Amino acid sequence: MTEIGIVAVGGYNEMGRNMTAVIVGEDIIILDMGLRLDRVQIHEDVEIDKMHSLELIEMGAIPDDTIMKEINGTVRAIVCTHGHLDHIGAIPKLAHRYNAPIISTPYTTALIKQQIEAERKFEVCNRVIPLNAGGTYQVTEDISIEFINVQHSIIDCVLAAVHTPIGAVLYACDFKLDRTPTMGEAPDFERLKTLGREGVVAMIVESTNAGRSGKTPSEQIAKDMVRDVLLGTEESEVGMVITTFASHIPRLKAIIEAAGEMGRIPVLLGRSMERYVGAARDLGYLELPSNVEMHGQRKDVDRALKRIIQDGKNKYLPIVTGHQGEPGSILVRIANGETPYTIEPGDRVIFSANVIPSPMTQANRYALETKLKMRGARIYDNVHVSGHAYREDHWELLRMVNPEHVIPAHGDMEMHGHYIEMAEDAGYVLGDTVHLLRNGEVLYIEE
């Protein structure tokens, strides 16, 4: 065998619906099977469990994996690097087409199982195998999967190395080089350097924030920002509501700790909060104080909000879904006056999240903030740091791993362009050693 094939199935024209296939002789390894959230007007609380895969492919919501029918070979494993929906959200719709195990970290495995159980259209019988960061799984005699610890905005995230007879293919979607994480270990720099010395044939790497200069701030910075906004005030008796990604367990931990310092009871509200936080607690990643409340169903949420109003807003810190202005989410319902919780002049609404850069999301978020301001809310936005590598982190990883070929993924044409410019600075040549792929294209790398 002298060549490796890289199939850009999804996530190469856009952010979301990530899926890549690596062809090694007659064997194929699939990396990620994600959902494109904005295409189904979706957020963390929306369910698409009854929809057909072909309908979702047509909407551009999940990867168009019909290209796989044209690829000779057998899929031997489906590998998922972390638990965000844009990386695992299509598993309930597509995985049953492949007679292959799904390999992922323990927390990701728990989330995948939740997704499979919720699916109503297809029966997904694939084995789901947990593999810890630092572990290796032998797929065939010639191919193994290695998980390398890295940080991102969700716990238990890894880079996946596909080891083949002619060298490794490193899949680096998504990551940040956070040396002072608030949960979990710092990235395994030693292993990455060793892997670079052993020989990396190709690196498939996210390009999401490749256009942002400098280095991504540590999650420790976000923890300090959250604490500063929540505790750094003389108006400590006002109502406060905070919203963040339900999957961002380190951020939620920081918010819960700050609530304790404020003497407020943290109340997690939303189905996705219940799912993500519940899984982290059950696996022992997160220890919750005894006074934390968690409510997922709408009637339980409204009952909790009613009690907060009756007992006094200053006794509680509601932590809610809805930072992107998603229809039906709790913060949107509060802004619309559809819950017992009323926003009064001077109440604080804290967004510990960025706005996802899509026109629909930006419009939804603008409408949400406007409604909150009309009710007199004081808005604190972008109390947040990114989970994606900025340009200098990308530079650092590229120099550390020193792959022969590099392929930007997980982004649109502009993001890929930024990555390619940076790679050219490092000596890579477009069309020769750095490659621009679009969904549905196949690249063969010969050794």
UniProtKB/TrEMBL annotation:
Keywords per UniProt: Cytoplasm, Exonuclease, Hydrolase, Metal-binding, Nuclease, RNA-binding, Zinc
Binding residues annotated for substrate, in chain numbering: H384, V385, S386, G387, H388
GO biological process: RNA catabolic process
Residue intervals of the Metallo-beta-lactamase domain: 16-204
E.C. number(s) listed in UniProt: 3.1.-.-
InterPro entries in UniProt: Metallo-B-lactamas, RibonucZ/Hydroxyglut_hydro, RMMBL, RNase_J, RNase_J_2, RNase_J_arc, RNase_J_b_CASP, RNase_J_CS
Main location: cytoplasm
Record's subcellular location: Cytoplasm
Record-listed Zn(2+) 2 binding positions: D86, H87, D174, H410
CDD domains: RNaseJ_MBL-fold
GO molecular function: 5'-3' RNA exonuclease activity; RNA binding; zinc ion binding
Cofactor: binding details: Binds 2 Zn(2+) ions per subunit. It is not clear if Zn(2+) or Mg(2+) is physiologically important.
Gene Ontology CC terms: cytoplasm
Classification via Pfam families: Lactamase_B, RMMBL, RNase_J_b_CASP
Protein task: An RNase that has 5'-3' exonuclease activity. May be involved in RNA degradation.
NCBIfam families to which the protein is assigned, alphabetical: MG423
HAMAP family (alphabetical): RNase_J_arch
Subunit structure and binding partners: Homodimer.
Family as reported in the entry's similarity comment: Belongs to the metallo-beta-lactamase superfamily. RNA-metabolizing metallo-beta-lactamase-like family. Archaeal RNase J subfamily.
Name of this chain's protein: Ribonuclease J
Organism of origin: Methanosarcina vacuolata Z-761
